Structures are given as C-alpha cells and as structure tokens.
Amino acid sequence: MAASDLKDLGVHTEMYVDAYLEMFKAGKITGARKNIDRYKQVYSFAMGSQELYDFLDDNPGLASYSVDYTNNPVVIAQIDNFVSINACIEIDLFGQVCAETVGTRHISGTGGQLDFVEGAYKSKGGQSFICLPSTIELKGQVTSRIKPILSPGAIVTDPRTATHMIVTEYGLVNLKGKSTWERAEALVSIAHPDFRDELIAEAGKMNIWRRSNKIDSAIINF
C-alpha cells in the first residue's frame, strides 16, 4: 500500500500497526475524505515497533477510542468507501465464514471481524474482503478451505448475509445479493482446481448447484 498510487487514505481500525505508519510516511494517509473524524487516524489499540509507539505518543493526528466506538458498525458505515480486510480459516458454499476454530479446536477469538464486515458492507461504496488460501495442509493431507458445509463444530464468525468479497489465490468473487446457488457457483470458481469437481458434486447433493456459463464470468482472476 505504501508503494501504491493510492492517496488521501483514511484510517479507522481496531488495531494500529506499523503498516499504517509506513503508509503515512509515504504520504498516502491524510484522512481528508473521511466523513467523520476527518484528518484523524482512529484506532483502539496498537501493536508494533518502538518507532510506532513513538509516533503515536502525543500525536494530535491520531485518536484512540474505545472499541464500542471504533468497532460499532453504525459508526463504520458512516464512512463512505470504507474497505475492511480480514482473514478466515474456512468458508462454506453458502457463504458462512469461520475465522475462529478448526472444528471444535479454538484458534482465535471473534475480535472485531464481524463489526468491520458489517460496517463496510453497509458503507456507501464500501467493500468487505475476506481473504484465505484455497487449501490447507493438515497432518500431511491437503484439504480445501472452501467446503460444502463448515467443519463439524466450526464457529460461524460471519453469517452469509454479511459476506461480501471473498478472495483466494484463484481470484475474487462478490457474494453480495447473490442467491444460494449463485454463491456456490462463485465460490467453486475460486476454489483450488483439484477440489472443484468434489465441491460441485456435494453442492448437487444439497440442491444448490445449477450448472451455467456464469461460472466463467463470476471470477476475477489476478
């Protein structure tokens, strides 16, 4: 981001990290276009280098708020063109996202993911991105992170009604406003090719698969 051609970026985040400092030093962050807290970089807590902490100390260009403000989807949605980027562990063909557990084994807390997913979803021009590798290797076996249904015991972090942009190394799909079968078709298109036939077969068993020519146009390749 610091090396991109973006400009006049604004910051409203739960955790402030060194990447924001690098973007600020590169002149990318001004906050000039924020609808609220204009010219302020808003955050709840910070984690990073000593340089980062020195930058934050007594800096009038930053504002640290409690999470009931920074993570409030109503507040986030007031910022036009808001972009949130989150990771997850797995997603099913209905668009349900798990970012907390592998089955019943806890990996992470919920954090502010759903807050920022919903806030960006409802922002005018906003986009919420959920990013994940298409596969994972467990005990020497490679499996798909895109699954027909979530693993037994997996926690739903983001409901399908809130999921928006889903990204793997095979492309990006927009699930906003999609029907169940359109979601399945889109997600299969960005799954690892080795698992697509299996996902299609399982989707067929669940009656959420309609073979169409849209599978080619649903994907945006990188």
List keywords for this structure.
222 residues; alpha/beta; Transcription Regulator spoIIAA; Glutaconate Coenzyme A-transferase; 21% strand; elongated
Could you walk me through the main structural features you see in this protein, from its secondary elements to its overall organization?
- The model is unreliable at 213-222 (pLDDT under 50).
- The chain contains eight helices and 15 strands.
- Helices cover 27% and strands 21% of the residues.
- A hairpin with a 4-residue loop joins strand 6 (90-92) and strand 7.
- The two termini are 17 Å apart.
- The strands form six sheets. Strands 5-10-14-15 form a four-stranded mixed β-sheet. A three-stranded mixed β-sheet has the order 7-6-13, with helices on one face.
- The chain has two domains: 1-70, 4-hydroxybutyrate coenzyme  like domains (Transcription Regulator spoIIAA), CATH 3.30.750.70; 80-217, Acetyl-CoA hydrolase/transferase C-terminal domain (Glutaconate Coenzyme A-transferase, 3-Layer(aba) Sandwich), CATH 3.40.1080.
- It has helices at residues 18-25, 50-56, 67-70, 73-77, 113-122, 180-189, 193-205, 214-217; strands at 15-16, 41-43, 45-46, 62-64, 83-87, 90-92, 97-98, 101-102, 105-106, 127-131, 135-138, 141-144, 146-147, 165-168, 171-174.
- Helix 6 (180-189) runs antiparallel to helix 7 (193-205).
- By secondary structure, it is an alpha/beta fold.
